[in-house]
Design goal:
Length: 389
C-alpha cells in the first residue's frame, strides 16, 4: 500500500527535515522529500509534529517478553522479536549467551529458518562466548566456558551464513586465530569479558577484533599493580581509533557522565547503543522466578548484589536515557541506535537511515521520546498505533 507520512520532523542523513514527507510502498522507502503535498492514491499518516526516525537496530539482546534466545525454539525467537519490535527495534540480531554447541546449532537452525521469511526482523545471529575469560565472566556460565577450539567453531561457521557476530575474550589461547577466521568471513568479531591491556588490545585489533562489547562493563579501567600503574581495557580501546564500541545505555550499567565521555571520545560514528536485554525485558508477566537473580532499580542483578547480570531495557529506553540523562542531542542518540549499528554489523545497505530504496523501517517518537508508532517494512506494527487512535 502506498503510504505517505507527513507533518513531522524527519531525521535524514543530512539532519532534520521539517514539513516534508516519507513516501513508502511495497516495504521500501520510495522518497524522502521536503514536500508535504498529498500524493494521489497514498494513505496519509499524520505524525502530528512528532519525530520520524529510522527503526532501531538491536545488535545485542539475549531475550525479552519472558523468553531467552538460548531457548532455541521458533516460539521463543518470535516472542522476543515481537516484544522488542513494539519498542522500535525493527532489526534484531538474537544474542546467545555461553551455552553448549548443541544449543548453538539448534539456534542456528531456527535463525536460518526465520531469516528466510519475507520481511524478517531477524537479521542474523550473535554469539557471546563460550570462549570467555573465567575471571571476567561471572558465575552464570561457568560450566560452559573454555578456550577457542577450531574443531568446534569452524564446522559451525561453515554450516551456516546466519552468524553475523561473535564475541570472545581476546587474551585466551587461540583467540587471535579465531578472530582471523571469523573476520575473514565478514563476521563482526568483538572483545568481551576481558582483562586485556594495551599490547593485547592492539594485537587483538590487528587480528580482527574490531568492536568492544558492552564497553566499560566486564572489563577493567586504569589500575595499579604493586607500585606501578597500567592502562586498562577501557583506555586501550579508546586508543584504538578505528575500534567501535557499544554501551548499555539503560541508565544503570553506566552513569550519564560515562555515556557523555564515550560520546565525546568515540563519537556517533563509532558508538552503538545496545540493551544486552535479558528475558524480563519488555515483559509484563510474572516476576522473576530464578533465585540467582533479582530485579531492582530497573536492572537485573545477581542475588548477592555483587554485580549486574544484564538489563531489562528496550531500544527506546536507551535513546531516552541518552537524551534525558546524558544530554545528547536526539539526532545523535537515534543515530547511535540505528545508523551506526547498521554500519558496524553490515546491514547499512538496507537499514539504519531514512533514504530512498532502503527498507521502510520507521519509528515515530513524541516530544518525550516515547514510541508512538512503529513501521516494519512499511507495515504498522500491531500495538504501536497510539499515534492514530
Amino acid at each position: 500500500m502506498l503510504t505517505q507520512i507527513i507533518n513531522g520532523h524527519i531525521l535524514t542523513p543530512q539532519g532534520w527535515l521539517k514539513d516534508g514527507s516519507v513516501l513508502v510502498d511495497d516495504g521500501k522507502i520510495l522518497e524522502v522529500t521536503n514536500s508535504d503535498l498529498a500524493v494521489i492514491g497514498a494513505k496519509a499518516i499524520d505524525a502530528k509534529g512528532m519525530y520520524i526516525v529510522p527503526g532501531f537496530i538491536s545488535m545485542h539482546s539475549h531475550g525479552g517478553g519472558g523468553y531467552d534466545f538460548t531457548d532455541a525454539t521458533p516460539e521463543a525467537f518470535q516472542a522476543i522479536v515481537q516484544a522488542h519490535l513494539k519498542h522500535g527495534a525493527t532489526s534484531i540480531f538474537p544474542t546467545l549467551s555461553s551455552t553448549t554447541f548443541d544449543v548453538l546449532r539448534q539456534a542456528v537452525a531456527v535463525c536460518d529458518e526465520l531469516m528466510q521469511k519475507p520481511d524478517s526482523v531477524v537479521m542474523g545471529l550473535h554469539i557471546e562466548g563460550p570462549y570467555l575469560n573465567k575471571k571476567m565472566a561471572g558465575t552464570q556460565w561457568g560450566d560452559f566456558l573454555k578456550d577457542p577450539d577450531p574443531e568446534e567453531y569452524i564446522p559451525l561457521l561453515e554450516s551456516t551464513q546466519c552468524i553475523k557476530r561473535w564475541d570472545i575474550s581476546p587474551e585466551l589461547p587461540g583467540a587471535h586465530d579465531f578472530a582471523r577466521f571469523t573476520s575473514g568471513r565478514g563476521i563482526l568479531t568483538a572483545i568481551t569479558h576481558t582483562e586485556a591491556e594495551y599490547p593485547e588490545i592492539k594485537s587483538a585489533f590487528e587480528a580482527g577484533f574490531t568492536h568492544a562489547a558492552h564497553f566499560y562493563n566486564a572489563m577493567p579501567g586504569f589500575h595499579k599493580r604493586r607500585e606501578y600503574k597500567y592502562e586498562g581495557t577501557v583506555e586501550s580501546v579508546y586508543l584504538m581509533d578505528n575500534m567501535t564500541v557499544e554501551v548499555i545505555a539503560d541508565g544503570v550499567h553506566l552513569p550519564a557522565t560515562i555515556l557523555k565521555l564515550v560520546y565525546k571520545l568515540k563519537g556517533v560514528e563509532k558508538t552503538c547503543l545496545v540493551t544486552d536485554a535479558l528475558k524480563y525485558a519488555a515483559y509484563n508477566g510474572r516476576t522473576i522466578d530464578d533465585s540467582r537473580y533479582v530485579i531492582e532499580d530497573g536492572v537485573c542483578k545477581l542475588a548477592d548484589h555483587q554485580t549486574l547480570a544484564g538489563s531489562i531495557a528496550s531500544m527506546d529506553k536507551l535513546v531516552q536515557t541518552m537524551v534525558k540523562s546524558a544530554g545528547i542531542p536526539l539526532a545523535d542518540a537515534v543515530r547511535m541506535a540505528s545508523e551506526t549499528p547498521a554500519a558496524v554489523i553490515g546491514v547499512a545497505d538496507r537499514k539504519g537511515t531514512l533514504q530512498k530504496g532502503k527498507d521502510a523501517d520507521i519509528v515515530i517518537l513524541d516530544k518525550d521520546v516515547n514510541v508512538r508508532c512503529v513501521f516494519s517494512y512499511g507495515k504498522m506494527v500491531e500495538g504501536t498505533n497510539t499515534l492514530i487512535h
